[in-house]
Specification:
Layout: H1 2-5, H2 10-41, H3 45-71, H4 75-97, H5 104-126
């Protein structure tokens, strides 16, 4: 009985972690495709930043939708929390693997992830599946 009253329980945390990992996978995949296009078509630097931002926004949106579809309630809260988890993953990957520094541009991209994930959470709860 107590478990039903908790806003965030272990099942919700599990779904948020899985959803944010899916979002990270999508981000890596889109970034990989973007890198191929950038090299093939010699895309200028200012467009490369826009492409990476769109990639992160799509991954956040997708993670938020998946998370709220699993949990089926409180889309704003769980979309937001999923976005934070996804942002932490991206920070860890950037620092530990690529040895990147945190910049203002990077922080603004993390805010975009969180906003898009929150929007995804709202959409995921409100989109009805047609059977």
């Amino acid at each position: 009985m107590k478990e039903k009253n908790n806003i965030i329980n272990l099942k919700c945390i599990k779904h948020m972690l899985i959803s944010s990992m899916i979002g990270l996978s999508i981000s890596i995949f889109i970034t990989f495709l973007s890198a191929i296009l950038i090299v093939k078509f010699n895309i200028p630097n200012y467009l490369q930043s826009i492409i990476s931002t769109i990639s992160l926004a799509l991954s956040g949106l997708t993670a938020g939708i998946i998370s709220s579809k699993f949990i089926k309630s409180k889309g704003i809260l769980f979309g937001f929390l999923t976005g934070i988890i996804l942002s932490i993953y991206i920070i860890l990957v950037s620092i530990l693997i690529f040895r990147s520094e945190i910049t203002m541009l990077g922080i603004s991209k993390l805010f975009i992830i969180i906003i898009c994930s929150t929007i995804g959470g709202i959409l995921g709860v409100n989109i009805k599946q047609k059977i």
